[in-house]
Amino acid sequence: MDKKMTYEEAMNRLDEIIAVLEENKATLDESIKLYEEGVELAKFCDSKLKSIEDRVVKIYENGSMQTYEGDHNGTNDSGNQ
C-alpha cells in the first residue's frame, strides 16, 4: 500500500476489493491477498479519520479558548469594558 495514498483513494480501492470479494471472482489465494490489503486499507483509513478528528477537536478547542478569553478581556457585549 502506498503511504502517500489519500483517504479517498484508499476508500475507492477498498470498495474495489469488497466488490471483487463479494462477487467471488478471485481464487482463494487472490482472495486472501485482497483481504490482507483490505485490512491494511481499513487501518489506514481509520488512522486518517482519527487524525482528522484530533485536528478538528484542537481547532474547536482553540476557537473556544479564544472566545472565552475574549469575553474576559473587555470584548463581550455586556457593556462592561
UniProtKB/TrEMBL annotation:
EC number: 3.1.11.6
Signal recorded as keyword: no
Cellular component terms per the entry's GO annotation: cytosol; exodeoxyribonuclease VII complex
Broad class of the protein's primary localization: cytoplasm
Reactions this protein catalyses: Exonucleolytic cleavage in either 5'- to 3'- or 3'- to 5'-direction to yield nucleoside 5'-phosphates
Keyword list, A-Z: Coiled coil, Cytoplasm, Exonuclease, Hydrolase, Nuclease
Subunit structure: Heterooligomer composed of large and small subunits.
PANTHER family xref list: EXODEOXYRIBONUCLEASE 7 SMALL SUBUNIT
Function recorded in the entry: Bidirectionally degrades single-stranded DNA into large acid-insoluble oligonucleotides, which are then degraded further into small acid-soluble oligonucleotides.
Alphabetized NCBIfam families for the sequence: xseB (TIGR01280)
Protein name (Swiss-Prot/TrEMBL): Exodeoxyribonuclease 7 small subunit
Organism, scientific name: Sharpea porci
